[in-house]
Structures are given as C-alpha cells and as structure tokens.
Amino acid sequence: MAQLKLRIKKISSKKPVTKEPGFATRVLTNGTAAFDDIVKEAGRNTTMHKAELRMAFELCMDSVTEMLKQGYIVDLGPIGKIYPSCSSGWYEHEEDMKLADVKPQLYYRAGDEVEAAIKSAKVVWAKAGDEEEDDEGGTTPTPGGGGTTPGGGTEYNEGD
C-alpha cells in the first residue's frame, strides 16, 4: 500500500478561546471520493459486478443506520467504529441542564489500519498555487487539533 502524503497549507486562524489572531495548518485534499468511485475501485479486486457491489455497500449502510437507531455502537471491522454521541454545554448545577441544549452527534474512531495510515503519513508543505479541490465548501481548521468541519469532513492539523 502506498504511503499517505498530506499536503499542508498555512492559513490565518484565531485561537479558539482567546480569539487571538495567528496561524494554523490545513490539509489540502484532492476532493471527495464519490460513492461510485469507491464501488468502482473495490470492483477491481473481485468478479462481482459493480451493481452487486453497490447493492452490498448500500445494504451494509442500511444495517449500520438501523443499528445506530437501536442505540448500538457500530463496529465496521478494520474501518473503525461509529458511536452515537451528544454535545451540550457545561453546567454548574444539574437542575440547570435542559434537554433542548443537547445535540445528537456521531463519533468515529478509526480502525488500526486506518489509524496507522494517518499516523505514518508523510507531511509536506503544499507548493505555491496548490489549491484544495474540495466540493464540501471552505472551512476553518481547529488550531492544535483535528476536528469535524462544518462541511462534514475531518481536517488533520499539525500536531495530530
């Protein structure tokens, strides 16, 4: 398997707590791998027809969705695990907590192979003129750590 090479770009950013101006890093991507592209790539190593592979993936995703709805942590084997989660503010007193302040979320923990691919990635500065081919829309990274972006992707920042 080829080593992952992350192209890093310096961007203006504000420190989350103090709003102090500064800089952070952002990974430039090659865009989003579409579902059909993943099915096509997976089909290279099998005699299954592309339509059969697509149906198998879709059936698995239907099962993942159903298991999440039933409150399970979903183990996707080498891909990783998906956990139901929530976010809310911090409250000094229990009685101040309101259900309306809780927002459902998903938490993803990568499997060992996926985690190893990221941790062993070679990090290089992007060349002048390199631009991200991201169809998810522009986002601002979280300085000092990776996080889920407003566009839905995950950014990997220097120091992760």
Please tell me about this protein's structure.
This protein is of the alpha+beta class and 160 residues long. 23% of the residues lie in helices and 28% in strands. It is built from three helices and eight strands, in the order ββααβββαβββ. The protein has a three-stranded mixed beta sheet with strand order 2-1-6, with no helix packed on it. It is flat and about 60 Å long. The C terminus is likely disordered.
Write a compact overview of the structure shown.
The chain is of the alpha+beta class. It has helices at 35-43, 50-69, 112-119; strands at 5-14, 21-28, 74-75, 80-87, 103-110, 122-125, 147-148, 154-155.
Helix proportion range: 10-25%
Q: How are strands sequenced across the largest beta sheet? A: 2-1-6
Low-confidence segments, given as residue ranges, are 137-160
Strand content: 25-35%
Rg (CA only): 19 Å
Instruction: Specify the number of helices.
Output: 3
SSE sequence, one letter per element: EEHHEEEHEEE
Report the principal-axis shape. Answer: flat
Number of strands: 8
State the distance separating the first and last CA atoms: 22 Å
Secondary structural class: alpha+beta
User: What number is the mean pLDDT?
Assistant: 81
